[in-house]
Specification:
Layout (H helix, E strand, L loop, with lengths): L3 H12 L5 H5 L4 E9 L4 H18 L3 E8 L7 E8 L2 H13 L1 H10 L6 E11 L15 E8 L5 H18 L3 E8 L9 E8 L2 H13 L1 H14 L10 E8 L7
Helix pairs in contact: 1-4, 3-5, 6-8
């Protein structure tokens, strides 16, 4: 059965009215990470379209803008990474249909692509918060970098990885100056949903991140937690090849989360 939030969202969309603030403020049940790889020279135009049109239209149709980022430093792939939040998948699909059907979006899309399409390729990943994820707080601090980390658990060991984060890692991150922001699993509809942990953390700078992780890795409490968890699992909790992938992200000027 659809949840009450989903029914209310669908009704608001059908009537063409904004969703109640209480609905948008409720803790989202589903997030979507979208990565846009732009055609050469089109990233600035994509930023302008989001800044001037897309974000407002997303909100109009019941989507919550969470954060918009580009990789720190050089961006050779010319990519934009952003996160949206919804009550659930049903609400997400209804919102996207209404957005794509909106004449304002169609006009913005047509005008922005008069000289060629902006986006060459899109990837989308549906995410659900873990039971130990902090409550989402989209804040504009304006002086931090974000780090997106993706872990692929070894077969059958995602629960053990979760337990280690829940019982040890998150507190140790805080101890060493890392800001815990949000922790997700792949939604059940995604491939490898039983193996993926994706999370965002914050740092004062990349240099501060390096210092924090160096202190974290040397902490006897971490060494003990890692050793005990791996002994119990019979080996590493993450895959040897690309089991841990990390990327520093810089918020765009229009990102709600900074």
């Amino acid at each position: 059965m659809p949840c009450l939030r989903s029914i209310l969202a669908a009704a608001c969309l059908a009537l063409g009215v904004a969703l109640p603030t209480q609905l948008l403020a409720a803790e989202p049940g589903l997030y979507e990470m979208r990565v846009y790889y732009t055609n050469e020279g089109k990233l600035d135009a994509l930023h302008a379209r989001f800044r001037d049109h897309t974000m407002a239209l997303f909100e109009k149709h019941g989507m919550t803008n969470v954060g918009y980022f580009v990789p720190t430093g050089d961006n050779p792939e010319q990519k934009l990474i952003y996160f949206l939040a919804y009550p659930d998948r049903e609400a997400r699909d209804a919102s996207w249909k209404a957005f794509l059907d909106d004449p304002a979006w169609q006009a913005a899309f047509k005008a922005s692509t008069a000289d060629g399409r902006l986006v060459a390729r899109i990837t989308e990943t549906f995410l659900e918060p873990t039971d130990y994820s902090p409550e989402l707080k989209v804040e504009d601090k304006g002086s931090r970098v974000f780090q997106l980390r993706t872990y692929t658990a070894t077969e059958g060991n995602l629960p053990a990885l979760d337990a280690r984060f829940r019982d040890h890692t998150i507190d140790l991150f805080t101890k060493h100056g890392v800001e815990n922001l949000i922790y997700w699993h792949h939604a059940q509809s995604m491939p490898d949903a039983d193996r993926m942990l994706v999370y965002l953390i914050g740092h004062a700078s990349e240099e501060a991140a390096a210092e924090s992780f160096a202190a974290f890795r040397k902490d006897p409490a971490w060494t003990k937690a890692r050793t005990e968890s791996e002994e119990k699992a019979g080996g590493s909790l993450t895959e040897k090849e690309n089991g841990v992938v990390a990327e520093f992200l810089t918020p765009t000027d229009y990102s709600p989360w900074k």
